[in-house]
Amino acid sequence: MSKEIIKDNNQTDTRADKLKLFSIGSVVLLAAIILLVNFLFDKVLGKPLTFDFSDSFNNTISAETQQYLDSLPADTNIKIVGLFNRPDNVASTEYQYIIPLLDDYVKKSGGKITLEYIDPTEQPTIINTLDPSNSYDLGNKAGCFVVSYNGRIKVIEPIDCYSYDLNTYYQTGYYYIDGNNTEFTFTNTMYNLTSGNICNAYIVTGLKEAGSVNLTKVLEAMSIEVTEIPASDNFTIPEDCDLLIINGANNDISERMYVVMSDYLKNGGKMFVAVDYSSANVNERFDRLNKLLNQMNINIDPLLVYENDPGYQHSGVAIDSTVVATGDFTNYASIPYLSCTYARSVTSVDSTISGYTASPVLQTSENASTHEVAENGTILEDSGSVNKYNVAMYSTGATEDSAEVFVFGTLNFTSDSFMNSYGLNHENVDFLRSCVNELLGGKIGNHLNIATKNVDNYSLDTTKSTTSVSTAMLVVFMIVIPVILIALAVVVYSKRKNL
Questions:
Q1: How many alpha carbons fall within 13 Å on the CB side of residue 163?
Q2: Which CATH number applies to 197-445: 3.30.70.3450, 3.40.50.2300, 3.40.50.880, 3.40.50.720?
């Protein structure tokens, strides 16, 4: 009897040893499988199995960019140089949405894009290598990116990659980020460099305008070289000017500017003019600018447009409404119903000697009215009529070499503040592109329509960084899950070892 009991105990001990070895072996085998699979996924299937966990795919190039990269010749060499040492951690920095996306450009370009980070204070020769003529003052561009192709370069500052609230910036000096334009900026810069500039646009400055940063981005994305012309006593328009732009002027042009611009139009020049009605220009009648535009049978009225039709108003506000594209301009955007605020009415002069015909471009409802308003917002004078008003008009002559001009009484198509709020691909901006293309005689082809991406909570959120997300995923799959499996194996073993 005792021998039989001893025999059973030996069998139990033997079975426990086998279970122990089986449990340990299973854990070791599982860990080895996890490591092997992780290695194979990274080395063999890394590209197709790489995922962007950021909202709006901030760290992944879009199909439009990929299509553009695929269309480039195999020997294309686009160089991107960050003029700084690459930070170890980009979370909560201005590079948070830039550096991870640039990594994706390189990864998916098939060798057509190279990326490096060189601090010019440590390697000053990079300045002369990129810009031998020192045209871009790269010595003072530390922290920026330089995109280079075939000897042509473009400097991109980190803030160029974001849209932000202008009012907060003016009040506090801080950028309150509300949109990510990194892909729009870099892809269209590459497109511009590889395709070459087709036309030259000159923006008039020095008329107390707010600025045209986003307008410049939109034009450059259309392969248009943009240069500023400051208002001065010796104001001239360069001979290579394909398009002259006055955007958001709050002061009238000078007599010298009127004479020069008048000659420009007489020689078949193309102009785009946009103004609005605001406290900064409420007393401005734009006498000389109107004298110029009158030659094209157009006049900017000193009256504020009020939309009285509730169906056209936005949130019941008479100065914030919908306008409708009319005539040949209905197909200039994906929808003909566009946004308009603080608009001046634009009218025809009924000039029979100019030889130019002015056509409505954007109109209110038939129940709108116009008012003269004081700086404090008090209505000084009512136009006395309820009618359909134009907030944009187009004029040209009968011959192919006639001057052309678009005149907008609102800045909802060209201002930095509007584009910062609604993005660079809003219907209004699409309409603007079509107007520019019309003025340039259809020379501009399809631009790369890269959408503005969202930035959650309107701040630089550290959880959206590819680096931090990748680290979190690494910890979960390489540490947390294996530890849990080992713990489960230990529990199973402890429960079964005495069976």
A1: 26
A2: 3.40.50.880
Q: Which two tokens mark 386?
A: 């309820």
Q: How far apart are CA 384 and CA 387, in angstroms?
A: 10
Query: In whole angstroms, what is the distance from residue 277 CA to residue 306 CA?
Result: 11
Burial class (CB in 10 A: 0-12, 13-18, 19+), 1: exposed
DSSP string, 356-413: -EEEEEEE--TTEEEEEE-TTS-EEEE-S--B--EEEEEEE-SSTT--EEEEES-STT
72-to-109, 150, 367 alpha-carbon distances in Å: 9, 14, 52
Length of the chain (residues): 499
Residue spans of alpha helices (H) in 113-245: 125-130, 166-172, 182-195, 213-220
**Alpha helices, DSSP H only, in 283-371?**
287-294
Q: Which residues of 197-208 are buried (b: 16+ CB within 10 A; e: fewer)?
A: eebbbbbbbbbe
C-alpha dihedral sign at 191, 197, 201, 202: positive
In order along its 499 residues, the chain shows pLDDT tens digits of: 444 444 455 555 666 666 666 666 766 776 677 667 666 655 554 444 444 445 557 889 999 999 999 999 999 999 999 999 999 888 888 899 999 999 999 999 999 999 999 999 999 999 999 999 888 899 999 999 999 999 889 999 998 888 776 666 666 666 677 788 899 999 989 988 898 767 999 999 999 999 899 999 899 888 898 999 999 999 999 999 999 999 999 999 999 999 999 999 999 999 999 999 998 999 899 999 999 999 999 999 999 999 999 999 999 999 999 999 999 999 998 899 999 999 999 999 976 667 899 999 999 999 999 998 877 767 776 766 899 999 999 999 988 889 999 999 999 999 999 998 888 889 999 999 999 999 998 777 556 778 777 775 444 333 333 444 445 555 565 666 667 767 776 776 666 555 5
Q: Does 197-445 match 76-196 at the fold level? A: no
Q: Which residues pair with residue 305 across a beta bridge?
A: 370
Query: Which residues does residue 65 pair with via DSSP β-bridges, in sequence order?
Result: none
Q: Where are the domains of the chain?
A: 2-52+465-496, 76-196, 197-445
Task: Count CB-CB contacts under 10 A for residue 111.
Answer: 10
CATH superfamily of 76-196: Glutaredoxin (3.40.30.10)
Would you say 210 and 415 are in contact if contact means Cβ atoms under 8 Å apart?
Answer: yes
| Rounded CA separation 217/226 (Å) | 9
